[in-house]
Amino acid sequence: MTALDRRWERVRRATRDSGDRFVSLVRHAGPAGSAMATREWTVADSAAHVLSIASWYTTVFDPAAPGPPVDGLAALLARTNVDTVRRTNAVVLDQLPQRDPERLADALHDAVHRLLAATVAADPERPVPWLGGSRVPVIGVLAHLVNEFLVHGWDMAGALRRPWPMPDHEAATFLEEFLVGMIRHDYGVLLDHGGRPPKRTIGVEFRSSYTAPVGLVLRDGRVHVSGAGDPADVRVTFRPSRLNLMLFGRLSAARAMVRRDVVVGGPRPWLLPSFLRFVHMPRN
Question: Are 205 and 61 in contact (CB under 8 A)?
């Protein structure tokens, strides 16, 4: 088995396992599906949002699968960037009226297992179109769905007062397979926004016990995967589940650092906030 085969197997297992946990969480919501999971979304809203993503992904690989019934979805996705994801999500949710937890759970179960069946023979490194004209490898598409399960499941479990495991080996796939994979191929306009990029080049190296070391470089307003000659200004040692919660605004940087779930070092650690102001994740 090659290294890629092992990575692909890990991501597929994470998709199945995190998906099954998420479906179980939704199924047991019952009347509590109306509880607020975030400031804007109920538990049922969050489940419907994740279902829209799982359904969309299924249609990418299985054209016969029923996709989200959203008017003009392709055009909407093509013009989305990191700062307009919230608006895109609102448009999609407005056209998906189903909020019954049992029915959402059934639809999620079907979508996840259909997606896994449709990708069983796929080339994990083949890039496919994604938001904002970006191109994400197949393995990264599944890794993104894993992160959706983990982060939105965290929101929902808090509202439902139920335990929510976030295994670090599952959470690690977001950075390694999705984010780095997309940047290696082409992120289109996804990370373009109104923020002014730093004048200087900033290199950030990410290390964890669950991922291979990787560096990202912000240079002239564009992000690249580090090459052999790119020095690291900042080194981030992290626990994947906590880093993801921090990146998506569920956990403050101060709390993550105090708990040493995220440790920042390197010769110029003060440059990390400038990097993250430009290279940031949506908060929805």
Answer: no
- Give yes or no for a contact between 226 and 203, defined as CB atoms under 8 angstroms apart: yes
Greatest Cα-to-Cα distance within the chain, rounded to the nearest angstrom:
56
DSSP 151-192: HHHHHHHHHHT------HHHHHHIIIIIIHHHHHHB-TTTT-
One-letter amino acid at 137 equals P
- Of the pLDDT bands very low, low, confident and very high (cuts 50, 70, 90), residue 192 is confident
Tens of pLDDT, residue by residue over 134-149, are 999 999 999 999 999 9
pTM: 0.96
Side chain identity at residue 80, one-letter code: T
The C-alpha atoms of residue 130 and residue 113 are separated, in whole angstroms, by 21
Give me the sheet containing 262-265, strands edge to edge: 222-225, 211-219, 202-208, 234-238, 262-265
Q: How far apart are CA 243 and CA 241, in angstroms?
A: 6
